[in-house]
Amino acid sequence: MEKPVIQVAAGIIRNEFGQIYLTRRLEGQDFAQSLEFPGGKVAPNETPEQALKRELEEEVGILVSHAVLFERFTFEYPTKILNFYFYLVDEWLGEPFGREGQEGFWLEQEELDMEQFPPANTKLIQRLLAEYKNSASHG
Fold first, then answer.
1. Domain range annotation of the chain
2. pTM for this prediction
3. From first to last of its 139 residues, what are the pLDDT tens digits of the chain?
4. What DSSP letter does each residue of the chain carry, written as one string?
5. Which fold does the domain 5-137 belong to in CATH?
């Protein structure tokens, strides 16, 4: 049986202090209590960027004004294949909050811990940590 392929768009919402806004997955979801970058499934009639903007408004209540594709990769779970589009969101309107009742908070980029995220995010976290170290060392 072929695994379903799901397109997912998510936002790395980063403020001027280099902090990233994360949310915690609700009970009852896959990887409940894990941290995640807000986002969700791309609908059949949407581009990943359109999905990103819609999802971030629904999930954390912000209107994205500028986002750039940061990382794109495929991750295979036992039951499904996810095509991820991660956007770096550096301009938006509003203050993000857990609009669906989920916990949300700002975290320093260098404090990201891949143990706290679903397995699909490992490479992305490694890249963000490496990027932080490079920018920190070059002042």
1. 5-137
2. 0.92
3. 799 999 999 999 999 999 999 999 988 888 889 999 999 999 999 999 999 999 999 999 999 999 999 999 999 999 999 999 999 999 999 999 999 999 999 999 999 999 999 999 999 999 999 988 887 776 6
4. -PPPEEEEEEEEEE-TTSEEEEEEPPTTSTTTT-EE-SEEEPPTT--HHHHHHHHHHHHH--EEEEEEEEEEEEEE-SS-EEEEEEEEEEEEES----TTS--EEEEEGGG--GGGS-GGGHHHHHHHHHHHHHHHHT-
5. Nucleoside Triphosphate Pyrophosphohydrolase (3.90.79)
